[in-house]
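Hi support team,

I've been running sequence recovery on a batch of backbones for a student project. Most finish fine, but this one hangs at about 90% for roughly twenty minutes before it completes. I'm not sure whether the input is malformed or the queue is just slow. I've pasted the structure tokens below so you can try to reproduce it. Let me know if you need the job ID as well.

Thanks,
M.K.
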């Protein structure tokens, strides 16, 4: 394990991304991005800090209360970073700061300024520009700074940029197609996540609590250098699996129930996102097996269609066809398959999408097209996560009530089709049972 991976991120990658942004900016414009500030949890305790994904993507800088300004004027470009100044007393209490003097060299920026002087610098840099790229509503502290800067400029009879352009579509499109370095980091997040699920399978027993298994997962993440989960881990025994974002994780596991775990590591700020569902006792019952096989078939057939120029929609249509046929066969739905699909009868048992983009954010940025029909391209990374959830009070044969199943993998779209980045995590019934029983 190399915990220094973040310090070793090649700055050139971030610089190249800023170059690409400069190329897309119109002349006589500036682009401004803030990161997050630290957030109070209670009293004088804070949540552990994690930078804004867009800001990280363009700077590789992970300190709170920072901002980045790119200026393109008369064909010339200037990159500026605003950071907290060094402060020995604060650093003794709360940790090291890069500081203004070190920032330009360390981060390959033209200049750095004190974040506390940002209004003053902005007023100078934005004067007489025609456009400002800015995403309003993401960080209120950033909105306050920019719009009070504009107010001050107007009061002082300075010309403010009269066009505000949202930079989100531009940056989201860039982030949607992953670079080789990004793919390597996501692969590592997926690898760590796979290990954690295998550990969970081995550690699960009747009467252990959901949160104990969550702890086993977190331990495996930490062991491989991922301090954070990419999202709150879902460890849902029995019918808790029918609550899609269940996160109480406080119930004992019951013999005879399934356990659904949706957990992914965040490695170097990149997310893995895996779901596995397995029996608490180590052996699937017949009704559990029937629904599991159906979910797995939806997933394996969908994966075959998640290839260049196909779409999430095409794959989901196939999954829905398989699901509806399967539910009719099991007596859970009654009627004609085509009519049931038309009526979306399956929605009561499969109420979420097939998958989403994956990257710096677990639900990553990027346009999906109409009804998720955007053609897939090489370099995209996405999840494929069909599920079947039968509530306890559903009007279905008794043996299926209270069962929730989801199987989720992460795919990279490649010239050959796709690569399953989470194939190290077992999902065939025999493999899961074998791992659990050998533990
Ligand atoms: N873990 C959130 C999701 O699967 O989308
Ligand atoms: Mn998930
Ligand atoms: Mn997901």
């Amino acid at each position: 394990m190399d915990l220094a991976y973040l310090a070793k991120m090649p700055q050139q990658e971030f610089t190249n991304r800023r170059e690409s942004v400069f190329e897309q900016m119109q002349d006589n414009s500036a682009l401004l991005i803030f990161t997050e500030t630290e957030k109070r949890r209670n009293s004088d305790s804070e949540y552990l800090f994690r930078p804004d994904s867009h800001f990280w993507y363009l700077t590789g800088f992970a300190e709170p209360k920072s901002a980045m300004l790119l200026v393109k004027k008369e064909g010339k470009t200037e990159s500026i970073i605003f950071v907290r100044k060094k402060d020995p007393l604060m650093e003794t209490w709360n940790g090291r700061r890069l500081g203004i003097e070190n920032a330009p060299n360390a981060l390959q920026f033209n200049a750095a300024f004190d974040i506390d002087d940002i209004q003053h610098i902005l007023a100078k840099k934005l004067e007489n520009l025609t456009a400002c790229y800015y995403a309003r509503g993401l960080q209120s502290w950033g909105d306050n700074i920019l719009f009070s800067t504009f107010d001050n400029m107007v009061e002082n009879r300075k010309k403010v940029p009269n066009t505000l352009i949202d930079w989100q579509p531009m940056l989201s499109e860039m982030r949607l197609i992953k670079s080789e370095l990004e793919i390597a980091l996501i692969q590592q997040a997926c690898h760590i996540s796979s290990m954690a699920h295998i550990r969970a399978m081995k550690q699960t027993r009747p009467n252990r609590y959901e949160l104990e298994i969550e702890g086993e997962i977190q331990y495996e993440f930490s062991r491989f250098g991922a301090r954070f989960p990419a999202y709150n881990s879902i460890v849902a025994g029995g019918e808790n699996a029918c609550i899609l974002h269940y996160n109480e994780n406080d119930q004992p596991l019951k013999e005879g129930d399934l356990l659904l775990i949706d957990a992914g590591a965040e490695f170097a700020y990149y997310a893995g996102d895996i779901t596995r569902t397995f029996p608490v006792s180590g052996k699937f019952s017949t009704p559990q097996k029937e629904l599991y096989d159906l979910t797995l078939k939806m997933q394996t057939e969908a994966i075959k269609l998640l290839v260049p120029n196909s779409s999430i929609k095409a794959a989901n249509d196939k999954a829905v066809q398989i699901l509806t046929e399967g539910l009719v066969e099991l007596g859970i739905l009654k009627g004609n398959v085509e009519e049931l699909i038309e009526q979306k009868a399956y929605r009561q048992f499969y109420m979420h999408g097939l998958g989403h983009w994956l990257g710096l954010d677990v639900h990553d940025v990027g346009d999906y097209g109409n009804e998720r029909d955007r053609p897939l391209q090489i370099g995209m990374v996405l999840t494929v996560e069909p599920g079947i959830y039968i509530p306890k009070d559903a009007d279905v044969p008794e043996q299926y009530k209270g069962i929730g199943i989801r199987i989720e993998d992460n795919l990279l779209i490649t010239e050959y089709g796709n690569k399953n980045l989470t194939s190290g995590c077992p999902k065939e019934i025999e493999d899961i049972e074998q791992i659990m029983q050998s533990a």
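--
Follow-up from support: It reproduced on our side and the slowdown came from queue contention, not your input. Residues 231, 262, 273, 356, 362, 385, 408 surround glycine (ligand 1) (CB under 6 Å). No action needed from you.
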